Amino acid sequence: MKMEKLFPISINPQFCVRCEKCSYSCSTKAIFFRDSLRYVDYNKCKGCLKCVNVCEHNAIVVISLEEGRLIDFKIDN
Ligand code: SF4
Ligand code: SF4
């Protein structure tokens, strides 16, 4: 049986235009700034994916760990 663990999301700084929409959409305040980049606090993130829906620049990907290997995939808004 394949073991898979979902790590909610990751923000790609190459696509992020720092518009703040993801931060406003996050009810648990899991998205924060550091050195003008967006990061996700995985202790606060509940994996609701609202931030993925509001990001118009496809800068947020869903990350999962599959059999020890990190993979990411885009959610089509
Ligand atoms: S909504 Fe997307 S583009 Fe805007 S700050 Fe968040 S990750 Fe960056
Ligand atoms: S998935 Fe939900 S809880 Fe996690 S950072 Fe995005 S909006 Fe916040």
Description:
The protein is mainly β and 77 residues long. The chain has a single domain (4-73), classed as Alpha-Beta Plaits, CATH 3.30.70. 13% of the residues lie in helices and 36% in strands. It has two helices and five strands. It has helices at 21-25, 50-54; strands at residues 4-11, 31-34, 37-40, 60-66, 69-73. The longest helix is centred in the N-terminal third of the chain and has 5 residues, at 21-25. It is globular, with a radius of gyration of 12 Å. The model has no long low-confidence stretch (mean pLDDT 80).
How are the secondary structure elements laid out?
Blueprint (H helix, E strand, L loop, with lengths): L3 E8 L9 H5 L5 E4 L2 E4 L9 H5 L5 E7 L2 E5 L4
Antiparallel strand pairs: 1-4, 2-3, 4-5
One iron/sulfur cluster (SF4) binds next to β1 and α2.
Structural class: mainly beta
- Helical content (DSSP H or I, runs of 4+): 10-25%
The succession of helices and strands, N to C, reads EHEEHEE
Write down the CATH topology.
Alpha-Beta Plaits
Distance between the termini: 30 Å
Give the total of beta strands.
Answer: 5
Rounded to an integer, what's the Rg over CA atoms?
Answer: 12 Å
Biggest pleated-sheet summary: 3 strands, antiparallel
Descriptive tags:
three-stranded antiparallel beta sheet, 2 helices, Alpha-Beta Plaits, binds iron/sulfur cluster, globular, 5 strands, mainly beta, 36% strand, two-stranded antiparallel ribbon, 77 residues
